[in-house]
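Q: My labmate handed me this sequence with no annotations at all. I'd like to see what the chain might look like in three dimensions before we decide whether it's worth expressing. Could you predict it?
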Amino acid sequence: MAFESLPGVKVASYASEQTFVVGDFFAVYLKSEENPTIYRWTEVKSITENKTDFIINAAGIVYKIPKLNIPDEKKLLNLRGVLEGAASFNPDIEYSHQKRILPPKYLYLNGDPGETPYTVNGYYKEREINLSNAILLNTRLGNMFKLIAFAAIVSIFAVLHFFWGDTAQNWFWFLPISVFSGGIAVMLVYLVCAVIANYHYAHLYKTDPALSEEITFTVSTAGFSAVESHLFTNGEFIPWEEANYFIETNNVFIIYKHNKAVFWLPKRLFTKEIQMEISGFIHERLVQK
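A: Here is what I predict for the chain of 289 residues:
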């Protein structure tokens, strides 16, 4: 399965007096019992990650692994990797998680990176994610911006017409004032979008510890990957067939699957020449929007 080389993780839940071992199997030790209950991953129905817990439904029994009992962020990300690797190998497992920038590991498959993959290590930066989010949001709302500008121009012109009067003689004043007002209205909406993008990233930063970790990014013939460097094995990729299209901004390459961003590659980690190569490399495999 994907990420099968990751070491297993042992976590104790002090509240439930249970100890969980997550690896090739899912084992639950009870303080009151000598022998553990061991589940194959084929017996696991669903895995959910929320803000406080990993919740595993195994053979109809629900177990909660509290994040509070995993103070080491690298260990927490290791646990997430093992769980998502199991979900990758067992697609019948229903997996749900909070929003994040890194692609979930259940999307990965084992693969050969080929002879000349583009691989680099680096960190995500809040500014580039926020700017890209704002650009993407504004792109999606492009027609709405036009409508807002038109509505503002018409409204201001109507107000000037009814409250100031003499439109036939003053139209050359009314028109630029109305157009200027329309521009202000669009700018205000743009600023609101930027604030929303900033809030979105701030929320992600609080809920996803991976954003503070060094990431290894790879683009290869087998696919693409963005994995925490301490979990990277150079053997797992999201195949190109799983993606639908990509968008290139001034700061990042963003690859989409079913209209959801699954891969963010910061362009600053490469020279301008390599950025152009990567753009062409991706363009040969995906449609650009």
